[in-house]
Amino acid sequence: MLRVNDMLPVVVVHGGAGHIPKDRSEMSTAGVCSAARAGYTILRGGGSSMDAVLEAVSILENNPCFNAGCGSVLNIKGEVEMDAIVMDGLTLGSGAVSAVRNIANPIQLARLVMDKTSHSCLTAEGASQFARSMGVPEVSPESLITEYSHMRWAKNLAPDANPVESQMGKMGTVGAVAVDSEGNIACATSTGGMLNKMEGRVGDTPCIGSGGYADNQVGAVSTTGHGEAIMKVTLARLILFHMEQGQSVEAASDLGLAYMKSRVSGLGGVVSVDPQGRWAARFSSLQMSWAAAQTETLHYGLYVGEHFTQSLGGAPLTGSTAHLASKPLG
């Protein structure tokens, strides 16, 4: 039987649940693998779980393939508004920002809210003022808009745009959970939100218990999917409730996602860990890019049932695996 120290540390990353076009799926998988490697490098060096999830999510925010940071989708006015959250499982401290416009890495601003204020969330111009007071550099709004996100925005303005298809083809919210060598747990989630959303719309990501939650006594979850549905069931905290009731990290993730689907017809995905370093990457959507790093092994996948592994030194352990990391949800 594995002891705790045999399993720790671990970092698990997601690049968003939904429908990822084939021409972007390889970039999405490469992106989450790179982020997981970076987070694990910090953990392997004795760094904290908070530093690891911040590094992983910052890398994804800097990757234009994802709906966070410089790849964020646009609101109805063609502008970027981003949300992010971090949570420390040791203290239950959390920090979040919402509707921020000119920050390259909202996840780092969220951590400053946690560390430097007595508040849990700052929004819009108030968050920008705080960023300036902390010396966080501002970037031009245009630098966060990619050709791809502008194309999706323009296409969805058409009078005959299909409301379901309008949310397809976007890269997703990004997030990470980790357990470090001290057994401390953290989560981080960042997003550009929903395609062509109303100005000022805030989704699940910055809401504690919805976009993420971390508690050393139970575990951590970072979510992705339809934000309004996730908020209705407080998905991250719901999954941890099931873990408190004795469910495994995988079973608890499945139960939470299945409830969201049956109760409010919401699809999504999660990455989850427990205090022993057991982890899961589960989703009810068509796809979710994910990667995990533990005991010198990189795990990753995109479709349900897909689980590839390779050594963190780069040598493949399984060529084109059919190992079932997950099964279809309800």
From TrEMBL:
Q: Which GO terms describe its cellular component?
A: cytoplasm
Instruction: Provide one Gene Ontology biological process annotation.
Output: proteolysis
- Out of the domains of life, which is the source? Eukaryota
Q: Which PANTHER family match?
A: ISOASPARTYL PEPTIDASE_L-ASPARAGINASE (PTHR10188:SF41), L-ASPARAGINASE (PTHR10188)
Question: What residues does the record give for site: Cleavage?
Answer: 172-173
Q: Supply the alphabetized keyword list.
A: Autocatalytic cleavage, Hydrolase, Protease
What broad taxonomic lineage does this protein's source fall under? Answer: Eukaryota, Metazoa, Chordata, Craniata, Vertebrata
Q: What is its EC number?
A: 3.4.19.5, 3.5.1.1
Q: Which organism is it from?
A: Gymnodraco acuticeps (Antarctic dragonfish)
| Active site, per annotation | 173
One Pfam match, given by its short name, reads Asparaginase_2
**Record family assignment:** Belongs to the Ntn-hydrolase family.
| Catalysed reaction equations from the record | L-asparagine + H2O = L-aspartate + NH4(+); Cleavage of a beta-linked Asp residue from the N-terminus of a polypeptide
- Its protein name is Isoaspartyl peptidase/L-asparaginase
Q: Does the keyword Ubl conjugation apply?
A: no
Binding-site positions, substrate: 201-204, 224-227
InterPro entries this protein is in?
A: ASRGL1_meta, Ntn_hydrolases_N, Peptidase_T2
* Top EC class, one word: hydrolase
Q: Single GO molecular-function term?
A: asparaginase activity
